[in-house]
């Protein structure tokens, strides 16, 4: 008698085993005790039916039906024809010879139109199969043990899955019917396994080819034996994309790195070996943009997946609420180990007082220098590598975490490292919180820069500058005279700081490589925004020009394209859905971004994004300091369209980046039809005049609240912010300009509104508040709020004063 072992409810009966069925069945999970991939478990690991899984070509089908309803080269699980396909009805072992299996797809052993349904004769099938099926099912039991997910591939299951191979081998012996002696040998499993473990590791395809050489059932028994032998030393097979273990993810986000350094010829100015490594082994995005070219709003977009006007992250003081659910929170909820090191900066309440006050008062009619003059400084010696010590310390923490903790995880992990470089360093002489206008590095990093390749940017004359550009240049202290050597040095020192940043990225990659995790980890490198480095007579960011808004974005990892460049326009809001896609978490439909995975995969995916097709544009907006207007940028095709405030009070800008990559020629007047078309697209994305108005109102309210909180110290505090060098020259003048701004904003219709505002302001400062019935101005909506008391009244017109 032949002997069989049936270890799971839906194990095929002995008559249905073929070479392909053995191979397909081995790809199922072992179903060991506590295996979360299986259904609820009873005593001794007995399982109900495993969760349905779709298998690719060559793997087991769902309930015996292969992918797309057709068993391809042997994958049906409860009734399989030779090579898995019933060729128009010629099914072996238990199906009617003249019955027609519909395209070869057996369902629970049933071929439509003439196959046996669990052995029950339907139009001519033998009843004896049913008897054998009932006998077998009465002895069904499950055995615990680890196994491998996935479909049949070139590599064999792990050693822990060998008991599955034993069951498969015995089942195949049952098919042979003449191999009782082989069955007896295989029951001595431990000894047999030890004897046969010396055989070389062969792929499933090679084993099948050898077993099927004679074309007979004895060849199948030989296949079972070879599979049994090879199982002892086999390595895990590569799984199909849908069933692969989820990848680890490492995101390194630096500050102020010009994305063009990752691909343009300009990157020849500095040696960036780690970025070049990622380019060779991964993908670089040629047109990646920040959604707001300043620290906190940009990072808020990246961590929320939403545009700036949706989260209302208007400036470095106003970001996300502390409890906002980020992509990392969701990944942790779905089983990822999570860790963060370094700069985050996406929640509200941070950065200097100067930074927020400068943003709130940008509509005030004055012009003050808010930064120190950009300068360079050498530190250390030719062997000093660690200049930005804080960043290096955070990098060390991340490296140690990888080596000591991540390497031991059985579940995937997500690691975030935030770097401050290559952001300029503080300038102590520049006032409160010093500002940051110093480009500082050591001789070691300067040697990585090719001075001869540094391009000196062209400048427009001050009189020809766009009015918003002039305001930015003035407040950044860049309207003075600069020699060509000064500009070259600023750019050289900036490139040297980029080289140091690159070295920290290299430390992370090396740690992953040395621990064997690199092949299992998706690595992403990006920045919150770029750095102008004296382009357009500016340093810093806060601009829609390429140096400021274009960010690096490189991705490498298992299953992703190598040595590939992607021209599609993308932005930082795409990080959120990408992370969820990697973790196989459903992507919310309300996100502003789109997953990058379809662009990164080696084979194009036909899966439709839940948010629809990726648009051909990206949006960036800015509402913070050093710019005296809200700014909106639409990047689409070769065009970059920039508009301001309400769209009519300030001249827009239009650049053809193909013909004018340096953005020196504004084509807005020359191509009014193009401007109108692009503006229409922009307005379909965001009602930017309304957003600009909301930001103006927010700025006034925040300033009033801050001013009131200072009481009698207001004049002293505001005079000693970063603009102190100009402010102290005529302190009364600038205070009056602010009072005029506040007064005009609430009294642009009638004189009594001006009196109302002054009176309310006086009451707020003195702390003397009358009863409600003393307020009788019919055209005013006002609200005053103090501890224990609040007044609010609605009026005919939508004028508003809010005093906190």
The gist of it:
This protein has 804 residues and is of the alpha/beta class. The protein contains 25 helices and 16 strands.
* Model regions low in confidence, pLDDT < 50 over at least 5 residues: 1-241, 745-804
- Any idea what the shape is? globular
Task: Tell me the number of helical segments per DSSP (H or I, 4 or more residues long).
Answer: 25
Strand elements, count:
16
Helical fraction: 25-40%
State the main characteristics.
804 residues, alpha/beta, seven-stranded mixed β-sheet, four-stranded antiparallel β-sheet, globular, disordered C terminus
Can you walk through the features of this model?
The protein has 804 residues and is an alpha/beta fold. It is built from 25 helices and 16 strands. The strands form 4 sheets. A 7-stranded mixed beta sheet has the order 3-5-1-7-8-2-9, with helices on both faces. The chain has a 4-stranded antiparallel beta sheet with strand order 10-11-12-13, with helices on one face. The chain has a 3-stranded mixed beta sheet with strand order 15-14-16. Helix 1 runs antiparallel to helix 3 and helix 3 runs antiparallel to helix 4. It starts with 18 loop residues before the first helix and ends with a strand. Mean pLDDT is 73; it is low at 1-241 and 745-804.
């Amino acid at each position: 008698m032949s002997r069989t072992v049936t270890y799971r409810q839906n194990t095929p009966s002995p008559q249905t085993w073929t070479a392909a069925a053995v191979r397909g069945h081995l790809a199922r999970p072992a179903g060991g005790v506590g295996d979360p991939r299986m259904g609820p478990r009873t005593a001794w690991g007995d399982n109900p039916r495993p969760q349905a899984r779709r298998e690719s070509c060559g793997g087991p089908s769902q309930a015996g039906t292969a992918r797309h309803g057709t068993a391809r080269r042997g994958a049906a699980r409860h009734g399989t024809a030779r090579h898995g396909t019933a060729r128009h009805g010629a099914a072996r072992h238990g199906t009617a010879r003249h019955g027609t299996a519909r395209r070869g797809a057996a369902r629970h052993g049933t071929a439509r139109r003439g196959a046996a349904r669990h052995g029950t004769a339907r139009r001519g099938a033998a009843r004896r199969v049913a008897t054998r099926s009932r006998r077998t099912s009465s002895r069904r039991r499950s055995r615990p043990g680890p196994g491998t997910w996935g479909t049949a591939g070139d590599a064999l299951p792990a050693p822990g899955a060998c008991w599955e191979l034993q069951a498969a081998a015995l089942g195949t012996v049952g098919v042979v019917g003449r191999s009782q002696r082989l069955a007896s040998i295989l029951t001595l499993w431990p000894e047999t396994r030890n004897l046969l473990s010396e055989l070389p590791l062969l792929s499933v395809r090679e084993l099948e080819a050898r077993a099927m050489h004679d074309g007979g059932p004895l060849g199948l028994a030989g296949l079972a034996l070879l599979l049994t032998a090879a199982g002892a030393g086999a390595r895990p097979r590569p799984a199909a994309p849908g069933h692969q273990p989820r990848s680890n993810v490492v995101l390194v986000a630096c500050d102020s790195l010009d994305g063009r350094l990752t691909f343009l010829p300009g990157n020849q100015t500095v040696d960036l070996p780690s970025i070049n490594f990622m380019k060779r082994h991964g993908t670089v995005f040629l047109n990646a943009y920040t959604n707001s070219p300043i620290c906190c709003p940009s990072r808020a977009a990246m961590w929320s997946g939403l545009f700036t006007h949706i989260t209302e992250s208007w400036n470095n003081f106003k970001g996300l609420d502390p409890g906002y659910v980020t992509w990392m929170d969701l990944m942790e909820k779905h089983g990822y180990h999570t860790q963060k090191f370094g700069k985050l900066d996406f929640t509200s309440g941070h950065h200097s007082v100067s930074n927020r006050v400068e943003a709130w008062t940008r509509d005030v009619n004055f012009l003050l220098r808010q930064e120190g003059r950009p300068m360079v400084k050498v530190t250390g010696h030719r062997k000093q590598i660690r200049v930005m010590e804080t960043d290096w310390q955070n990098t060390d923490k991340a490296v140690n975490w990888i080596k000591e903790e991540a390497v031991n995880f059985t579940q995937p992990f997500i690691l975030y490292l935030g770097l401050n470089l290559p952001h300029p360093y503080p300038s102590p002489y520049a006032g409160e919180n010093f500002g940051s206008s110093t480009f500082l590095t050591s001789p070691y990093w300067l040697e990585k820069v090719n001075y001869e390749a540094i391009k000196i940017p062209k400048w427009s004359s001050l009189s020809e500058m766009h009015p918003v550009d002039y305001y930015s240049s003035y407040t950044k202290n860049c309207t003075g005279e600069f020699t060509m050597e000064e500009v070259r040095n600023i750019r050289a020192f900036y490139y040297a700081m980029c080289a140091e940043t690159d070295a920290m990225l290299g430390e992370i990659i090396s740690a992953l490589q040395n621990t064997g995790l690199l092949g299992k980890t998706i690595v992403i490198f990006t920045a919150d925004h770029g750095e102008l480095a004296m382009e357009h007579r500016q340093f810093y960011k806060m601009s829609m020009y390429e140096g400021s808004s274009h960010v690096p974005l490189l991705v490498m990892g298992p299953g992703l394209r190598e040595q590939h460049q992607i021209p599609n326009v993308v932005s930082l809001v795409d990080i959120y859905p990408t992370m969820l896609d990697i973790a196989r978490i459903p992507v919310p439909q309300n996100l502003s971004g789109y997953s990058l995975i379809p662009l990164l995969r080696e084979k194009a995916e036909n899966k439709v994004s839940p948010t629809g097709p990726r648009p051909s544009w990206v949006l960036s907006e800015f509402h913070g300091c050093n710019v005296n207007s809200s700014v909106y940028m639409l990047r689409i095709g070769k065009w970059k369209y920039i508009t301001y405030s309400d769209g009519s009070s300030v001249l827009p800008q239009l650049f053809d980046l193909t013909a004018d990559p340096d953005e020196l020629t504004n084509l807005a007047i020359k191509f009014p039809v193009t401007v109108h078309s692009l503006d229409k697209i922009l307005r379909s994305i965001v009602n930017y005049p309304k957003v600009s108005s909301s930001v103006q109102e927010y700025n006034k309210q925040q300033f009033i609240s801050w001013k009131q909180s200072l009481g009698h110290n207001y004049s002293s505090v505001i005079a000693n912010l970063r603009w102190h060098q100009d402010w102290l020259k005529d302190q009364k003048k600038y205070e009056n300009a602010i009072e005029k701004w506040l007064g005009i904003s609430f009294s642009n219709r009638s004189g009594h509104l001006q009196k109302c505002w002054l009176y309310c302001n006086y009451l707020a400062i003195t702390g003397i508040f009358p009863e409600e019935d003393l307020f009788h101005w019919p055209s005013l909506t006002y609200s005053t709020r103090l501890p224990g008391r609040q007044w609010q009244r609605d009026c005919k017109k939508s004028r508003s004063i809010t005093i906190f």
